[in-house]
Design a protein that fits this description.
This protein has five helices and two strands; from the N terminus they run ααααββα. The chain has 136 residues and is α+β, with helices and mostly antiparallel strands.
Length: 136
């Protein structure tokens, strides 16, 4: 790792991020801060981090070993507005774990809202090329 990077340029930061990706493949859990220190760029950590975030490159995902740059069109948070129905049946503390590992905990929800959430997940999952069926 005797490579040097000019992190004053966009190209240099991009090369640095790619080198970090490669380093994480061989050293799982390597933090960007530790990598910066190792490369002699401890003062450039915040510059590289903010540059990457502005471009949709999420260091946490690289750190966790996720592949490539995430799809910028894919939402990371979905807010559902529950419809105002006169359902007297309310569910409390509902935990849902989806097949792709996403875990949601709903503090309070109605049955219809949970079904709408599952339908929304299924339609988004199908649009991304995932499984074609989702059981309720």
């Amino acid at each position: 790792m005797n490579q040097s990077y000019d992190i004053t340029t966009s190209e240099g930061k991009s090369q640095f991020i790619e080198a970090y990706r490669e380093a994480v493949k061989s050293e799982a859990g390597l933090s960007l801060k530790a990598f910066c220190d190792r490369m002699g760029l401890s003062d450039g950590y915040t510059k590289v981090l903010s540059w990457a975030n502005r471009r949709g490159i999420y260091i946490f995902e690289i750190h966790q070993g996720k592949r490539d740059t995430p799809n910028q069109n894919q939402p990371t948070f979905i807010q559902l507005q529950p419809s105002r129905q006169s359902f007297s049946s309310r569910l409390k503390v509902v935990s849902i774990t989806f097949p792709d590992g996403i875990n949601l905990t709903l503090q309070e929800s109605g049955v219809a809202e949970v079904i709408a959430l599952l339908d929304s997940y299924r339609s988004r999952h199908q649009a991304e090329g995932g499984a074609t069926s989702c059981s309720r």
